[in-house]
Amino acid sequence: FWIIMADAPLHAALDESLRDAEMLTDEDMGGSVFSISAATAEAAHEATVAAQEEAGRRMAVAREQMAEFATQRATDLESIEQALVAFRDSLPAAAQQQCTQAIDLARQALEDSRTTATEAAKDAAQQRGADGAGTSASALLRVAKRGRDDEGDEAPNAEAEASAPAPAAAAAAAATGTTPQGSVCLADAHPREVARYIPMRLETPHERNLLRLLESALHVSEYTDKVDILSYSGKTKRVQKQLMEVCAILSGLLVATDYRAGQELVTDRNFADNATFFQCAFEVGRRHKVLNPEKMRGEYGKLMYLLMDAQNEDIRQLLEFELVKPLKTVHARLEEAGMLNVLDDPLVVQATAEIREAPGKPRAQVQREIKAKEAAREALVKKYTGGGVSLRDRDVMKSLFGLVGGGGASSTTLRPEELRQCLYSLSDHNAYLRFNKEPVDTAIKYLEGWFASPDSAELQLSINVGMNGARLSHNHARQYTYVRQTLYLWREIMGDMFRLWCLAEDDLLKRNSYYRLTDTGQGLNRVQAAPKVSSAMHGILNRCMHRLGGGWVGSSVVHLGDHNVPNALMFIDKYTQVPRILGPLIRVVEEVERACRSDAKVSAYVESVFGTVERCQKIIMCDFFKHAFDGSGADNFFDAGSCIDGRLTSAWNWCSKVEKKVYWPVFKLCGFAGFDGDF
Q1: Is the CB of residue 437 less than 8 Å from the CB of residue 494?
Q2: DSSP helix/strand/coil, 391
Q3: CA 279 to chain centre
Q4: Which helix (H) or strand (E) is 465 found in, with range?
Q5: Per the count of CB atoms within 10 A, which of 214, 393, 586, 591 is most buried?
Q6: Using H for helix, E for strand and C for coil, what is the string for 329-371?
Q7: How far is CA 150 from CA 158, 240, 532, in A?
């Protein structure tokens, strides 16, 4: 079955590639018949190679999943055999004969499953070897083409695009002598390590003005609509035109908001002379998005794709300047000032701690903690800068707009206010961790408290393929373990989100990192390898497996750089949804009890439908743990299942169907507005 499903995409991709090849015209080829024929043949050959690679990746995933399924089936049958033996031994001698026949059948099925698991594992290993050889050959073809064609920005990356399972990734890292990212969670790391991935807060009103200019320019820009289209005309000129248009919009908006600064920007200068201004504007936007994932929901994608194209060598030569500069992080600013020793000071922990109002916590204690935090922060400022002078507007104007012409250098001296901003930024990271990890921790608490040993049959988490849309079959114990492992994995990812975001930007904005514009089933997307994010994810997955122990339920495949998760931007967008899914759900479950206490009519409704408030809460969470983790939500059966990103797909699918649930009125009575937040 899996082989048939894997072959189908191959034939479909080949047919699509041949159709695309037939659509080639003589546009931008000078009308030469020979050029048309050569280009058509080359494009068709490349499309065929790409289709074969895609089919090979899908086949590899299918074989891996088949091997894991067969191994788990053998384990389940072994448990059944042991249970039957124990049951037979408890029967009278006269009745043991019939039970022995059932045991023999179970043993035969067990042997068959073990044989199937062994063969599937061998097939998966052979497929990985074949894929490696095919990738090497296609990489040589791409390198050869890149040297003679200026359309390389749509070619696949020569690096491996398919994310291998965790053991394969670990072996690859060992072979190259590199250490996988994610061996230590960022939430538990030393402040020096944490500071490497924490962007600085927007420090001044002028940076916020830059942010507003950028958001306005991106809002009206049609960059992706004009660039990411199927066309056989030259893409380089199209990208250059759109980039210049965005820069022109930024310049015009600056003139409209600050005439003097705008006049200095545009008078007798071209865009290359103003490279520093554009770099600062784009860097401020990226930094703001990392610190505020709920902002720039539509503009950030345009921004990253724009900068991705700007990193192409041909585009840089046409623009004559670069648009990308490194993110301004806490570590980078302190290192520039030669003050990294601040991060080793024991007061940093107290100065950046989050003060929380817990139930039953006296207000006086909260005030004492706030004052202690402020005192620790000011002690650090006085110790390492010796004063309390704030940034002045003229200094900021000099650092931002005074460098519009590209000359000069920023001061490396760390002002007291800048050190405060560094400490505030570290505090923002702690607040971010609470917002993202707390809903996951609460969901784990409900799972382990209510469903480890459920007190009634209606709270069983067992699911079966085809029942209520499920695409997995798990008994209660297996589904409980599957959900628990997934929630702990999400918790680890939330703790490492800042590091993953920085690595995603590194993968997206790597110089000359090529991509393919491909129809992934959800429109045209840029398919690009993400080696740094992939390495970090496999490190997180291995760390989670090690901490939880026992067998891993489901697939350990991490999709990155394929039609499921086309690039690192899609990966980040996918996992920023975790708190948006769990946060509203947990708030509803917690609000039910308060709503029933404060409103007699709500209490009467809940009691008439569910019996008790606790039963209502348990039914909501039971349905979530069953059908938000049932392998559903994919466009086809091949992509459905229990892979790492597929678990989040199932959760989103459950969110889209919550209006049809019996407890939907409870959601509305508890103030539920939606899972997606505000745009």
Answers
A1: yes
A2: coil
A3: 25
A4: none
A5: 214
A6: EHHHHHHHCCCHHHHHCCHHHHHCCCCCCCCCCCHHHHHHHHH
A7: 16, 13, 26
